[in-house]
TrEMBL record:
PANTHER family: ACTIN. The lineage of its organism: Eukaryota, Cryptophyceae, Pyrenomonadales, Geminigeraceae, Guillardia. InterPro entries: Actin (IPR004000), ATPase_NBD (IPR043129). Belongs to the actin family. This is Uncharacterized protein. It comes from the Eukaryota.
Length: 454
């Protein structure tokens, strides 16, 4: 048990798209910044990326590793002890063009894979955004509902041994989203940038056996939309590639491509292209109220979107297709299946079918309560009419039970529902006995996370 309540707890939610950090008891996270990190590695030739860090952003520099084993250094393409790594963190830092900068993400398939990169993000959150000393604040950490035991143990180990925090609690995303909506029993559809997951929650606990995952994440939908537009001949050129001249009337008079970009990494170009398409997706895409048939909607009005080079494109059926495939996977083109990691559309499951499968794995006496509280959360559910379409599809597939979907009305609340739930939980007086203290950690080791944070 942790008895210290004189300082605010810190709530951390690291997702594939963004990191959210702030103080327990507040309405919204104090810091929100991209999870992607710009990494510049210098070799024996001393080449590091050009361009300074943006004001207010972070460029961490790891000094050369003195005495590094020669074999390991050779494998990395450098001589021993000469590699220097620069980390660019934050929206502004990532948007500035730098030679040899790769865009890397510590999260893959919804789980943390690169712990060194994750620590850079936490360092940035603590030191540069929240400006706190980790040793003085208990930490509530959000984790994916399907997180592995190894990841949970590693997370606890880093917090106590590296950051030396006084207490830690790890809570599952689905539970926190339920708390943010004032529910203790619900089935939670959490669709974010890197993962989509359906998890039933009963009396504040996730039913692990009934978790169902889906490849329909925001990142995959962005890749799909970019692929469709490129297939139609649209050239998405990021701003860093362009030299624009503005006329007297304020419009773009001419656009030329900047030369000498041979040292720009493909991952950086793709990241910047996806940033543009993600904005297009959030601006013009919407969910069809009923099953969308492209042939019968050939006369659908176009939505216009201006690209950074000033070209205005007409987005027709594509603005519905990106959402439609989540409810009707058969609408996915066969040549686009690889984006979602399958060979044919028949291998994909609609979101409402994922919910039905998840609830079907639960005990029959709680199914009515679960269908009565279907919580919709995550940035990938913000398309207009998404909630209404989901409720309609569920009602048609489950005729004997009443279905009710719940989603925060405000965009911010739906996007940050996991963090908000953590803020509520960590500020409750009754929760203080749930913390894992440093003393408990030293006595029982990493295994305590499984009994204390189920």
């Amino acid at each position: 048990m942790y008895g210290g309540d004189e300082v605010s707890a810190i709530v951390l939610d690291v997702g594939y798209t963004s990191c959210k950090a702030g103080f327990a008891g507040e309405d919204n996270p104090k810091a929100v910044f991209p999870t992607a990190v710009g990494v510049v590695r210098s070799g024996k030739d001393g080449v590091v990326g050009k361009g300074p860090a943006a004001p207010g952003e972070k460029m961490d520099v790891d000094p050369p590793a003195a005495g590094a084993p020669a074999a390991a250094a050779a494998a990395a393409g450098t001589t021993a002890g000469t590699e220097e790594v620069k980390y660019n963190i934050g929206t502004q830092a990532l948007s500035i063009r730098k030679d040899f900068m790769d865009i890397e993400n510590p999260i893959q398939d919804g789980l943390i894979k690169d712990w060194d990169l994750a620590q850079k993000l936490w360092d940035h959150a603590f030191k540069d955004r929240l400006r706190i000393v980790p040793e003085e604040h208990p930490m509530l950490l959000a984790e994916p509902s399907f997180n592995s035991n190894e990841c949970r143990e590693k997370l606890l180990e880093i917090m106590f041994e590296h950051y030396k925090v006084p207490a830690v609690f790890i809570s599952k995303n689905a539970v926190l989203s339920s708390f943010s909506c004032g529910r203790s029993t619900a089935v939670v559809l959490d669709s974010g940038g890197g993962a989509t997951c359906v998890a039933p929650v009963h009396e504040g606990y996730v039913l692990q056996k009934a978790i169902v995952r889906s490849p329909f994440s925001g990142e995959k939908l962005t890749e799909y939309l970019l692929s469709v537009l490129e297939g139609k001949g649209t050239n998405v050129r990021p701003p860093y590639m362009l030299n624009k001249k503005i006329g007297k009337d304020g419009t773009i008079a001419s656009v030329t491509e900047i030369t000498g970009l041979e040292n720009i990494r493909p991952s950086f170009k793709r990241y910047m292209q996806k940033t543009i398409i993600n904005d297009l997706k959030e601006t013009v895409c919407r969910t069809s109220e009923t099953v969308f048939d492209e042939s019968s909607n050939a006369q659908i009005p176009f939505a216009q979107y201006e690209l950074p080079d000033g070209k205005v494109i007409d987005v027709g059926a594509e603005r519905f297709k990106a959402c439609e495939i989540m409810f009707n996977p058969s609408a996915l083109e066969a040549d686009k299946c690889s984006i979602f990691g399958v060979n044919s559309p028949s291998e994909l499951q609609a979101l409402h079918d994922c919910i039905n499968e998840s609830v079907g794995k639960c005990d029959s006496d709680i199914k009515k309560d679960l269908y009565g509280t279907v919580i919709v959360t995550g940035g990938n559910t913000l398309f207009p009419m998404f909630k209404e379409r989901l409720e309609r599809e569920l009602a048609e597939s489950i005729s004997l039970l009443k279905v009710k979907t719940i989603s925060p009305m405000a965009t911010t609340e739906r996007r940050f529902s996991v963090w908000i739930g953590g803020s509520i939980l960590a500020s409750l007086g009754s929760f203080q006995q749930m913390w894992i203290s440093k003393k408990q950690w030293s006595e029982e080791g990493v295994r305590i996370v499984h009994s204390q944070c189920p």
